[in-house]
Specification:
Keywords: Hydrolase, Magnesium, Metal-binding. Its cofactor is Mg(2+). Belongs to the inositol monophosphatase superfamily. Its EC number is 3.1.3.25. About 35% of the residues lie in helices and about 25% in strands. By secondary structure, it is α+β, with helices and mostly antiparallel strands. The strands form 4 sheets. Strands 5-6-7-8-9-10-11 form a 7-stranded mixed sheet, sandwiched between helices. A 5-stranded mixed sheet has the order 13-12-14-16-15, sandwiched between helices. It has a two-stranded antiparallel sheet with strand order 1-2. The longest helix has 20 residues. The protein folds into 2 domains: about 160 residues, Fructose-1,6-Bisphosphatase, Chain A, domain 1 (2-Layer Sandwich), CATH 3.30.540.10; about 120 residues, D-Maltodextrin-Binding Protein, domain 2 (3-Layer(aba) Sandwich), CATH 3.40.190.80.
Length: about 300
């Protein structure tokens, strides 16, 4: 009979069998988890099918503010991923958006966002994602992000590059900030949105345009794919960026994260909880412009 340790020691890949304990093996597990979650989501009731615009009151609840929603689907997907990790990686710890968790003494920690872009999902907009990352010593070593509406799957492993549906990713070659496309996002708290809008309004005349999709994970993947040249947002949580930031990094982006669990990085004038990713040709100049227009006070 195969032991638990033997069952978790290898994982199938496209080219054979890799150790499930190296970054590439963990990447394949993350891909498997997000695929299974996306498939499970297709069989769940969809909030936008309800008679009440924006979903029925029974289909969601709120968290930090009345605009910060969680749906039954968020909870169902996190439960599924936790269950599957218990089977595939017994002994590993899990931190998820809906049910929390701690690293404990586990060598590998899985950081899970069951639906990133829940408001989009609630309204029937297609820009939402499932994100899973494997973390060691506070650093993401593997991760995957899937967009259930399109089926597109991004993934990366530390030192192993980033892909979308198996195709290698590389950030754009843009070197002129005035021709760059900037992605951003806004807080659930109204008073903070005012400060974020002030910063973005200062940057808007200096770039090609600004996009706001509503999913940090997908924005980071867009930078990795060259669909956006940069992304800047304040207030994102670890699960929002744990996989996407690695994907952007492995695609060649300059990436600055707030630090795992919200720990404050060295002060660089962007604000303690700023999440920033940009193609190298504009990263330094765009960060300087963000500071000039109040990033530290957002």
């Amino acid at each position: 009979m195969t032991s638990v340790d033997e069952a978790r020691s290898t994982v199938p890949t496209e080219t054979g069998t890799a150790s499930a304990d190296d970054p590439e093996g963990l990447r394949r597990i993350a891909e498997r988890l997000v695929r299974e979650a996306a498939e499970h989501l297709r069989g769940l009731p969809r909030p936008w099918d309800d008679d009440v615009a924006g979903g029925s009151p029974e289909s969601f609840s709120t968290k930090s503010t009345p605009t910060d929603v969680v749906t039954a689907s968020d909870q169902a997907l996190e439960n599924l991923i936790r269950e599957r990790l218990g089977q595939l990686r017994p002994g590993d710890a899990v931190v998820g958006e809906e049910y929390g968790g701690t690293a404990g003494g586990s060598h590998t920690l899985w950081v899970v966002d069951p639906i990133d872009g829940t408001v989009n999902f609630l309204y029937g907009l297609p820009w939402y994602a499932v994100s899973v990352a494997a973390v060691r010593d506070g650093v993401s070593v593997a991760g995957a992000v899937i967009e259930p509406a399109s089926g597109r799957l991004w993934s990366a492993s530390a030192g192993g590059g980033a892909t979308c549906d198996g195709r290698p990713l590389r950030v754009s070659a843009e070197s002129d900030v005035s021709l760059s496309l900037l992605a951003t996002g806004f807080s659930y708290r109204a008073e903070r949105r005012v400060r974020q809008v002030a910063m973005v309004s200062g940057l808007l005349p200096l770039v090609r345009d600004v996009r706001r999709t509503g999913s940090a994970a997908l924005d980071l993947c867009a930078v990795a794919a060259g669909w956006a040249d940069a992304y800047l947002e304040h207030g994102c949580s670890w699960w929002d960026w744990a996989a996407g930031a690695l994907i952007a990094t492995e695609a060649g982006a300059v990436v600055r994260t707030p630090g795992p669990t919200g720990s404050t990085p060295p002060d660089d004038g962007l604000g303690a909880d700023a999440l920033f990713a940009a193609t190298p040709g504009i990263a330094h100049e765009l960060a300087a412009l963000a500071r000039e227009h109040g990033a530290a006070s957002v």
